[in-house]
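Record format v2
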Amino acid sequence: MINFSPEDISAIWLTLKLASTVTIILLLIGTPIAYWLARTNSKMKGPISAIVALPLVLPPTVIGFYLLIAMGPNGFVGQLTQSLGLGTLPFTFGGLVVASVFYSMPFVVQPIQNAIEGLGDRPLEVAASLGAGRLDQFFTVVLPLAKPGFITATILGFAHTVGEFGVILMIGGNIPGETRVVSVQIYDHVESLAYGQAHTLAGTMVVFSFVVLLCLYWFQSKRGGQWSMK
Amino acid sequence: MNEPHRGDSNKKASGISTIDVSLCLDFGGGSSPPFSLAVNVSLPGAGVTAIFGHSGSGKTSLLRSIAGLERKALGSVVVNNENWQNSTFFLPTHKRSIGYVFQESSLFGHLTASGNLRYARKRAKKRTKGLSRKVIEIMGISHLLDRFPSQLSGGERQRVSIARALLTEPSLLLLDEPLAALDISRKREIIPYLELLKQNANVPILYVSHSVDEVARLADHIIVLEQGKVVAEGAVQEVFSQMDVPFSLQEDTGVLLSGTYKTHEPEWSLSRVALSGGDLLVAEVSATVGADLRVRILAKDISLSLSAEDHSSILNRLECEIIDVVEKAEQSMALVKLQTGDDFLIASITRKSLYRLGLVKGMHVWAQIKSVAIVQ
């Protein structure tokens, strides 16, 4: 039977806390970015899209390395957090959150962007002709009509953060209760040749990921595939 | 830029409301062929004004610019003394008091019909009591309120859309070919509602259309657009009886006349309609005696005869005087403008007939009218 050690439980709890925090933050900052990318004709659309999509192609070690330097005592993020009296972010839960937000960004921005692009201009023009201002249009028309995109973004953002390993190892190291998430815990078990415990956690991850993806595809097929991976 | 009758200053002084539009819109850049809209008109602030033209003439762009949906449109828009746009000021769409009905259905799919109506009502700048009930009744949609747009037919969706636009209590109602996306039977189903709308709504309506029939039935005033420019403007009956017909109206050259319903001839299933120059017999219409009717007679349905002798099957014959003849050497057909009473008719006959009968200005002839359409 499944038998988690206290360290495993702590890692699972930390992982869920990280993924939830990151997903909420990403929905808050990813939505305006996605809305802007979907509606703009600006020349900056290409560069911004590329930056958002970078984590899809870069090795996590590269992202982790530069984030480590930026958030370190001499990096610009580090300088900022120090001047605010927050210390430096590497090897803290806060550091993991910042790194994960960046790393999971495309998984949240792209589905929302696609959903909003799919709506076209018409619903917004109709809402404007009926007297709805920009913010009103967003909450009463864009949000409900692009809901499938938002749901997909939430699921993917959460699941991707749960599955993160390389960036976390680079930024957060391996501090129990602070930065040791499930993927790192599995790595530790394997390193110490505790294959049984590794199996328990790794198997749990497989089942979790499968169920999440199953829900996602079931949801998408029910919605007539309004969003497809690009 | 063209300036068809100015004189809006007089109208304003006398307190009559107008819609003054002076707009330029360039689609330079990528679009090919490059298209530009340049319109400067003063329209009546009441009744139905048709914006007529072929596709690509710029009529939808004009309507969108008036609504503030084309940010690149430069110029001024003043509706009933309310300034919506000038060189330094641009009122965004959601602050313009408009109702806009788009060509294809534009109901919000996540809301029911009544949800769509409430969306408009909540944001209306004024709310006259009992209006919702009246509008729902006029558009005949009370039984559809709980349905989602996906459960409605095309015609029903447009009726809900029109009702939704009315519920914002706009100072200007903009209809962009509301019938274009519907098949003929759906069009027939909706037109009576538009006529009811015209009679009941005390708001000026701009009606974009490329259908002469719709314009003849619904409009009081018309502007004709060709390639982004106004080529004719005025009361519908005047514009339709002009001889220098805009190209876009040529195929349907014909006049629109006002008549009065006179009597009924039940044994023949015919109705008698009085015009200023005589009576016409038309297929039975359901109207009360004395009712005003609008009659459309196409130029191609009129033939001319020199005598009053009646040996043909054609019932409708009016005595007329020829007041103008337009012919072009390279064309087989000529247009003859006729006066009967206070009304004008336009007949389209071959040039050969014109010379065979020796028709010239000032002659008296008999116009034989093959078919008459009652449009209202």
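Chain B touches chain A at residues 67-69, 92-95, 98-100, 102, 106, 108-110, 119-120, 123-125, 164-165, 168 (CB under 8 Å).
Confidence is low (pLDDT under 50) at residues 1-14 of chain B.
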